[in-house]
Amino acid sequence: MDADDILSDMLLEVPETPVLLLKTRKRKAPPENLTSKKHFIEPPAPSSVVLSDDKNIDLDTICQDSGVNEDSSVDQNVDQAAQDWQCDNPIVQATSDYTHFYWYDVCEGPTQGTVYFFGRVQVPDNKFVSCCVIVKNVCRSVYLLIKPFCSFDEVVAEFTNIIAKKYKIKNFTCKKVTKRFAFDSQVPIEADYVMIDYPANQQALPLDLIGGTFSKVLNANQSPMEKLILEMKLRGPAWLRLTDPVASSPQITWTKVELVINSPSNLSVEDKPVNLSRPYFCVLSLALQTHAHPNVPGRNDIVAISVMVNTCFRLDQCLNRNNKGCGHFLIMAKPQPSQKDPLRLPFDFPKAIKSFTQTRFELAENERDLLTMFMEKFNQLDPDIVVGHDLLNYDFETLVRQMAINKVGVWDKLGRFKRNTLPSSKKAFPNLFSGRVLCDIKKSAEELMQLRSYDLTELTLQILNQKRVEYNHSLLKESYKSSESLIQMLTAVWRDVDSIFSILVELNIIPLALKITNITGNILSRTLAAGRSERNEYLLLHAFHEDNYICPEKIQAWEKKFPGKNADGGDDKGGDNNPGRRKAAYTGGLVLEPKTGFYESCVLLMDFNSLYPSIIQEFNICFTTVKVPENSDEGAAEIVSESDACGILPTQLKQLVQRRKEVKNKLKVCKDPMQSTLLDIEQRALKLTANSMYGCLGFEYSRFYAKHLASLVTLKGREILLSTKAMVENLGYEVIYGDTDSLMIDTKLTEFLEVMQRGTTIKTAINRRFKLLEIDVDGVYQPLLLLKKKNYAGASLTMGTGGTIVKKIETKGLDSVRRDRAVIAKEAGERILSMIMESGKEICQTVQDIHAYLKELSEQVKKNELPISKYLISKQLNKNPDEYRDTKGIGHVTIALRLNADPKRARKLRSGDVIEYAICTDGTGESANQRGYTLEEMANNENLKIDHEYYLCQQIYAAVSRICDKLPFTNAYAIAEAMGIESCSSIKIPRDATVAVMKDQLVSKGEQRFVTCEPLTIECPACTCIEKIHAKTRKATKGNKLIYALVECSNCSARYASYHRKVVVQIIAHLKRLTFNLYNSKFTCPDCEHSSRNIFGPLNEQGRPVCVKCSATLVADMDDRLMDLQLSYFKYLLDIHNDNNDANASQIEKPTDDTLGLYKDCFDEVLGALRMSFTNTIDAQTVLSMVCSGR
């Protein structure tokens, strides 16, 4: 029997619990409802409050205090919180007819119409214990749109006689109401409805139901929890007043107190609770150390569990990671030796473990004992919030599975509901832990930070600046060889749980989530689950509900993706279940065509502040102000007149922006560090909410998806960007690039202060055109390297202290900063960007430095002088490895499948995991994507070596060549030559970098046009050394003077004039070789690298030969233009008579007559060949005859 079968068949062991009495008041009769029909459900008789059977617990017996707490008040809070578990008979305090209850989580149970609130309730001596309040009899409210010329009584009669009987609705009430609806063109904005209230445990009406007297059914699938949250206006954790609560018996949850409210009217928000202090919460951080079971593949045995707990945590409290006020403990299981895995504790371990004083340590006899001890402490602590890394996908899943295998029947205490079976689907697995707020620092970090990886090792390094040791299967086995190494492993597990709690504190995850929950009005646990779309939904749900609107229906994602299909993907009407790739639903933001190049002057970056939210406010774009088009395929809708009332969406955005301004103003004058931190958290929460508001309009699976509004917003954005560009150009400036909400302006200036003044002038002129839209100077770049759309790098200038200019390199879209680039490629790109942006040298000298650096780096790679960590590539799994269809071309998926198949691996890779690997030579001959291996695999296999050619050609060259593409004095071929890979078959050098010559190279002046030419090589007749003469070496340094290259040999100092004829013969040989190459050149395809000398095949529209394999245009290895350019280069190198105008002419040593004669003869040979070039000759007679004939 496998683990899943054990989980499914496991039965719950419910302990007997003592009964404690709660004094209750006489229940009031329900108020009379003035409706045409009244059906009330009689609540059960009151009973006693049932508390869980927990022994008296002292916090010191559970965990050890960290010892770093220097604040006595925190110590007192810990002691006071510990006493909450020491109450033998806690009695809930009741005031008059009601009881106060602080809620922080809410969910729905298996029974429809019942909502479960979880929180804290006060007991004597100002102590708080966990409590569940069960709200029963929450009704479903359905709205029937009355047809024209039909009456309320007719609709009620049809519903009573036909609809209610058909759908078995027994108890209901009817009422005529006037409501608004703004989400369907077929429904009027305001109309009369018949509101039907009936128990939510009865069947829901279908959304497409139409009757004889009503034309539409609205709000049919609203959940009871959502209805309760909206009607009570709940906006996050708060005090609630419970009127006439009764005790639940028997309890269905593991909370200390369980109360029942038989009507939602007995539950209300307490705005100003009297004589109640804010409750403390218990936050527990968890870390596991597992290792693969030796006999059962895929099973992970738990070696140790480390826990850190803070029992006096307040949700809005900002802690210091060095003063967390936590207790902690660690439990380790003795290994169970087997033939395949003979692990044993070292003989001196009982004595050596006494030196392990970091935390309270307990040793369990086996894994079952470990789990029993952990669950006993977990139940005693009764945490409200559980924190971990990859908590649901690994920690809790492993705990539940191992408790089932070891028959530890208390797995459901990880949540708050008593259960006896696990859910049948993995999607429902999180429901097991309802009632406890789960905080996964991995998910939170993904939302708040941009990192290469989000595993615990990377998070610890980037956030805490600490190195983490991860114990894999082999390292874990090694740790059992001595007590010292085993204690080091336990220390690593303890540090893991400390790091998890420290990251929670450092990022202020819980206070930030609380603020977002208060703003949007959703649930804290859902905010921590990174449900950004759901947050915006609840913000709008509250706003529309308060303004008497019926909210749109909540439709599941699969219903929107596959209309007309059931939940399993089936289609009663047939059809294709695979919709395939679809085009964008509407046109997005405008991206202007960039004027690529290297800009050494100051470039001004101007950016609209929150463009899309500002457009919504500027043009009053909302569901309530813009008419829904009848055809969903139509373009953007039209904006209503300005006289109409402000819409709900602009109003909400305005409130968010105004609140953020007020908070930021308070932050500027705040002196208290703690209060400043809280204000900063609040303004961040407001910013995150406001900036993501537009997203719910364009997200197809959002409840408030509105294609017509989203397209209208982007249309206005494109119009604003174009008009702003035209206005800037009318002011006399050049716009070199624009993207959605920003413009780049080449100021042609070099002074920072002057550029800022010009930016202020432009800003003022643009902002006069709008009421709410604002453009601002977002940065000044000098220099700027603009490569293509969404690809640029620049040195951002800012004014520092003391009036100094501070430079900081900023990039966007470059390959060197992509996460899936190797570390060595990323570092090479950053180094080259630093040389370009911060060197302060002339660009020609910078290019030479780049070539030298790449040559040095290439040598280091070839000689294997760099550590293996430099070659790591990081890629994230977007779905589970076994869900990919074609894995052959996806390297990291191939690795994930291979690792998951390893029975020795404890943790299986799944969606969201980041895999780090290197490309190696393994002798298989497979493509590079199939030759990826992790560091652990490389350590265990000596035959795996780094594939240096792959990293030079596919990683470093690919990243660097794109950066240097727009730099002068270099190109892709020069980069490849500097790295020594110009002949590598795995790289494709662009045509304009090798054989084809750009037009500006033929007409431009100076040395820049000769960057693709070969140097002039001369063999010394005396010592046979090779002299390469190019633009930089045509004059050599000798003492304080410059001499020409053909004066003497740089190696043996022999005078070339003494070997006059031999040198001229070498020049003639060069010219003949060029002519031979011209007439024997091949045509090569730049795409498939097919080459041929046949030019009589198919031609393209320009008359150029095309490849017979892929139809790409063939490129000649040598053509007339390149021949002419090469000859012109030789002429330039040998023409010493034009150096009289050189700035350094006074430093040039005057050549002797025999040297002048040598230069003259060489120059004449080149000039003669150049005059015979086809591109250098114009047949004037032919041209004039064509003109005269009118052709």
TrEMBL record:
The UniProt family comment states:
Belongs to the DNA polymerase type-B family.
Gene (name only) = pola1_0
Q: Which reaction does it catalyse?
A: DNA(n) + a 2'-deoxyribonucleoside 5'-triphosphate = DNA(n+1) + diphosphate
The Gene Ontology CC terms held by the record are:
alpha DNA polymerase:primase complex
Please name the PROSITE patterns in this protein's record.
DNA_POLYMERASE_B (PS00116)
Q: Which Gene Ontology BP terms does the record give?
A: lagging strand elongation; leading strand elongation; mitotic DNA replication initiation
Q: Where is the DNA-directed DNA polymerase family B exonuclease domain?
A: 217-458
Task: Write out the GO MF terms.
Answer: chromatin binding; DNA replication origin binding; DNA-directed DNA polymerase activity; nucleotide binding; single-stranded DNA binding; zinc ion binding
Name the EC number(s): 2.7.7.7
What is the name of this protein?
DNA polymerase
Residue ranges occupied by any Zinc finger DNA-directed DNA polymerase family B alpha domain in the UniProt entry:
1007-1149
Indicate where this protein is primarily found: nucleus
Q: Which residues form the signal peptide?
A: none
Q: Which organism is it from?
A: Aceria tosichella
Keyword terms = DNA replication, DNA-binding, DNA-directed DNA polymerase, Metal-binding, Nucleotidyltransferase, Nucleus, Transferase, Zinc, Zinc-finger
